[in-house]
Write a structure and sequence with these properties.
single chain, alpha+beta, Immunoglobulin-like, Serine Threonine Protein Phosphatase 5, Tetratricopeptide repeat, five-stranded mixed sheet
C-alpha cells in the first residue's frame, strides 16, 4: 500500500508538471464564456491562461471561486462586494450602453471604461454644440495607489458624427476629429488654431481635446505624452492588487490538494539554507516558511487556539521525483498569544539530507484549519563535496538558542540553533545572529587563518560599513567547524545591507567566500514569526543514510547508493523497513546472494511476510533457482494476489519450468491489473506460439 501511495504521488507530480492544452474559449459551456466576458478587463493574462487549461466544470467552478476570493475586500463576511459590484456594472453596460450599437455593451469603449472604473463622478454632454461632433466627457477621481492622478477626464465622441461613441485620444485622434466640417481645417497639427476654434464653441471641450489631465499640455497646445501613460495605468488598475501566483499554483496542485483548499492559496515568506552538519557529516537542506495568513480554531477544553500544518516535500531532478516525504505539525497555543501570532506569523521549519546535484525543491504547506495552502518552489544546487577548506554561509537570524548536540533541528549546527526570519528584516533593537561553517579546515588554517565579515549599507549617500575579524586559532580540528557570531543592529542605520564573508588562509589567500542580504528597519521594533520545528534524535541517524541512498539510487548513482544503504544497514540492522529497501536494491543490482542474506532479517516477522517471500523469490530467480523461487513467490501471492511484480515473476518462473498454462494464467492476471505492460504482452504472445 505504501508503495502504491508513493507511486500515485509521483504520477500526480508528473501530471502537475506536464503542460496542458488550452480549451478554445468558443468551445467552453455558455456559463464559462459569460464569466470570461464579465471579468474580461479584470482577469490577468496568467489567470485566463490557467482557466483555459482546466478540463472539467468542477475545476472551473473552484477556480472561479478562488478568483473572487483573491479580490474580496472583506474576506471575513459572506458578501463579496467586488464580485457584486462587477456584476452590477456588467448588467448596466449591456442594458444601457449597447442599445444603439451592433455589439454587446461591455465590448464598447464606454463599456470597457465603465467596467474598469465604474460610474463617473460627473458627465458632461456636448451633443448639441454647433460645429462639434456629438461628445460626452466622464470625470473621475484617481487612486494614487494605482498610479492614477487625483483627477482626470475621459472624452468619448462619435467619429464623423455617427455610430458608436469611441474613446478619444488627444495624440492619435487630435482635436480635428472633434470638428464636424473637416474641409474647413487647414493644418490638423496646428493645435493652437484648433484649440481656439473649439474654444469658440465650448471652452471646456477645448481643454479636453488636448489632455485627460487638467492643465497638462504644452505651451504650443500640443497634447502631453502622459495621456497615453494614463490610459495604460487605467487599463492595468483592476489588476494591480492581485498576485496571480495563486492561479499557476491552482493548476500545478489541483491533483494534490483537495478542492476546498484550492480557493484558499496564501502567500508565504520562505528561506532555504544548505548546511554541513558537524554531528553527522552530512549536508542538510533547511527551509522555513511563514504564511502571510493563518486560520486557527478554538480548543475549548484547555482554553487554547490550535492549527495543524502539514508539509509535503518533494525533490525533483528534471521530471523525476528523487525524494519525498510528509510531516505533520499540530500547533496549540494559549489565547493570550493570538495577537502575537496574528501580527508576526508562524514559521514552519524543516530539514533533510541531500546529495550533490541540481534539483527543484517543492514544498506544499497546508493548514487543515481553514483549508489554506502555501507553496515554496526553488531551484537548488548542491555542489560536489571537496577536500579543500571552504565555507558554508553566512546564515542570518535574530538570535541563537542552545540545543543538545545529539538532537538535530532545522538551522542548527553543533549546539547552536539559528532562529531565522525569512523576511530578513530587523530592528535596531535586534541582535543580528550570524552563523557560518568552516569545512575541511587544516592545521595551518586554524593556526593563522581567519574569517572576515563585512557589512555594507547600499544607500548612495554615506553608507554604513562595518568590518569584523574572527580568528580561527584555538578551534578544534574537525571536518566541520561551526562558528556563531553576533552583531549589534544598533550600530547600523536603517538601510538595505549586504553581508560578505571571506575565509582567509594563514598566508592571506582567499579560501572561500559567501554573501547574504538583510534590511534594518526604521521601526523601533520588528515582530518575528514564532518558529516551529521538530527535533530528531541522532541515535536514529541511520534514517538519514536511507534517505540519501534513495536519492542516489533514483539519480542512477548505484555505487554511492550501495555504500549509503550499507552504512544505514550497519548502523541499525534491525530496522525492518530499511532491510526491505536494501534487499530490493541488491536484487535490482544483481547482488542476489547478498539480497538473500539481508532478507533473512525479515524471517519470522509476521508483518512483513509478503516482502520477505517476494525478495527471496526475486533473488532465487536471479540465481536461476526457479523451483525454489516459485515456492517463495507462490507464498507471496497467497498473501496478496494483486501485485503485478509477483505475478510477472511467477509467469517467468513457470515458463522456465515448462509450465506454460500456469505461466499464461499469471501473466494475463497481471495484464488485467495493468494493461500498459508491453513486455508482458510480448511474453504472452511468445508463450502462445
Amino acid at each position: 500500500m505504501r508503495r502504491f501511495l508513493r507511486a500515485a504521488l509521483v504520477l500526480l507530480l508528473a501530471a502537475a508538471s506536464a503542460p496542458a492544452q488550452k480549451v478554445d474559449e468558443k468551445d467552453l459551456p455558455e456559463q464559462y464564456r459569460d464569466w470570461l466576458a464579465l471579468v474580461a478587463y479584470h482577469i490577468q493574462p496568467v489567470e485566463r491562461d490557467v482557466f483555459l487549461q482546466l478540463r472539467s466544470d468542477r475545476d472551473r467552478d473552484v477556480f472561479i471561486e478562488a478568483f473572487w476570493k483573491q479580490r474580496d475586500p472583506t474576506p471575513g463576511t459572506p458578501e463579496n462586494e467586488y464580485r457584486d459590484e462587477l456584476a452590477k456594472r456588467f448588467r448596466y453596460v449591456n442594458e444601457f450602453l449597447g442599445r444603439t450599437v451592433a455589439r454587446e455593451g461591455w465590448r464598447t469603449d464606454m463599456g470597457r471604461i465603465y467596467m474598469i472604473l465604474g460610474p463617473p463622478q460627473g458627465i458632461e454632454r456636448f451633443d448639441g454644440t454647433q460645429g462639434i461632433v456629438p461628445c460626452q466627457s466622464w470625470s473621475y477621481y484617481g487612486d494614487p495607489r494605482k498610479d492614477l492622478p487625483p483627477q482626470f477626464t475621459l472624452l468619448f465622441y462619435q467619429r464623423g458624427g455617427v455610430g458608436e461613441y469611441k474613446l478619444y485620444d488627444p495624440l492619435s485622434d487630435g482635436p480635428s476629429r472633434l470638428l464636424q466640417h473637416q474641409r474647413d481645417i487647414g493644418d490638423p497639427f496646428d493645435y493652437s488654431a484648433l484649440y481656439e476654434k473649439i474654444e469658440d464653441q465650448s471652452p471646456t471641450l477645448a481643454e479636453l481635446s488636448l489632455t485627460r489631465i487638467p492643465g497638462d499640455y504644452g505651451l504650443d497646445f500640443s497634447p502631453s505624452p502622459r495621456n497615453a501613460i494614463l490610459m495604460a495605468s487605467i487599463l492595468e488598475s483592476p489588476k494591480k492588487d492581485v498576485n496571480p501566483s495563486y492561479a499557476s499554483h491552482f493548476l500545478n496542485y489541483k491533483g494534490l490538494v483537495s478542492t476546498e483548499y484550492l480557493t484558499n492559496y496564501v502567500e508565504s515568506y520562505a528561506a532555504t539554507a544548505l548546511i554541513h552538519d558537524p554531528a553527522t557529516g552530512l549536508r542538510f537542506l533547511h527551509f522555513s516558511m511563514v504564511p502571510t495568513d493563518v486560520n486557527v480554531d478554538a480548543y475549548v477544553p484547555k482554553d487554547q487556539f490550535y492549527c495543524s500544518f502539514r508539509t509535503d516535500v518533494s525533490l525533483r531532478s528534471g521530471e523525476d521525483v528523487i525524494f519525498q516525504y510528509t510531516r505533520e505539525f499540530p500547533l496549540y497555543f494559549p489565547k493570550s498569544d493570538w495577537e502575537r501570532v496574528r501580527a508576526n506569523g508562524l514559521a514552519i521549519e524543516e530539514s533533510f539530507p541531500v546529495i550533490e546535484g541540481k534539483y527543484k525543491l517543492s514544498v506544499l504547506l497546508t493548514n487543515t484549519v481553514g483549508k489554506q495552502f502555501s507553496v515554496l518552489e526553488k531551484d537548488i544546487e548542491v555542489p560536489p563535496e571537496g577536500t579543500k577548506p571552504s565555507l558554508d554561509g553566512p546564515f542570518l537570524g535574530y538570535k541563537f538558542e542552545a540545543y543538545p548536540r545529539d538532537v538535530h533541528v532545522p538551522f542548527k549546527s553543533d549546539d547552536q540553533k539559528l532562529v531565522t526570519d525569512p523576511r530578513m528584516t530587523f530592528a535596531r533593537t535586534d541582535t543580528l545572529a550570524v552563523l557560518f561553517n568552516v569545512v575541511n579546515p587544516t592545521e595551518d588554517l586554524l593556526k593563522g587563518g581567519e574569517a572576515r565579515i563585512v557589512v555594507q549599507g547600499l544607500r548612495e549617500a554615506d553608507p554604513v560599513r562595518k568590518s569584523f575579524t574572527v580568528k580561527l586559532a584555538g578551534l578544534p580540528l574537525r571536518r566541520v567547524l561551526s562558528v556563531p557570531q553576533t552583531i549589534a543592529a544598533s550600530d547600523l542605520d536603517p538601510d538595505y545591507y549586504e553581508i560578505r564573508l571571506e575565509l582567509v588562509g594563514a598566508n592571506g589567500e582567499t579560501l572561500g567566500e559567501g554573501k547574504g542580504s538583510f534590511v534594518i528597519s526604521p521601526l523601533a521594533a520588528v515582530g518575528h514569526p514564532i518558529a516551529n520545528a521538530k527535533g530528531f534524535a541522532l541515535a536514529n541517524q541511520f534514517l538519514y543514510r536511507y534517505m540519501l541512498a534513495q536519492q542516489a539510487e533514483r539519480t542512477g548513482r548505484r555505487d554511492q547508493a550501495r555504500s549509503l544503504y550499507d552504512q544505514a544497514y550497519q548502523l541499525n540492522p534491525d530496522y525492518r523497513e530499511g532491510v526491505v529497501m536494501y534487499a530490493a536494491f541488491l536484487n535490482k543490482t544483481g547482488a542476489f546472494g547478498e539480497a538473500l542474506q539481508v532478507a533473512e532479517r525479515l524471517r519470522g516477522d509476521d508483518q512483513r511476510r509478503f516482502p520477505f517471500h517476494v525478495l527471496r523469490g526475486q533473488a532465487l530467480m536471479g540465481q536461476g533457482k526457479f523451483q525454489e523461487a516459485l515456492d517463495e513467490l507462490v507464498q507471496a501471492n497467497r498473501i496478496y494476489d494483486s501485485d503485478t511484480t509477483v505475478l510477472n515473476a511467477l509467469g517467468q518462473c513457470y515458463l522456465k519450468l515448462g509450465r506454460k498454462t500456469e505461466a499464461l494464467e499469471a501473466l494475463k492476471a497481471s495484464l488485467k491489473l495493468n494493461p500498459a505492460q508491453p513486455a508482458v504482452q510480448a511474453l504472452i504472445r511468445e508463450a502462445e506460439k
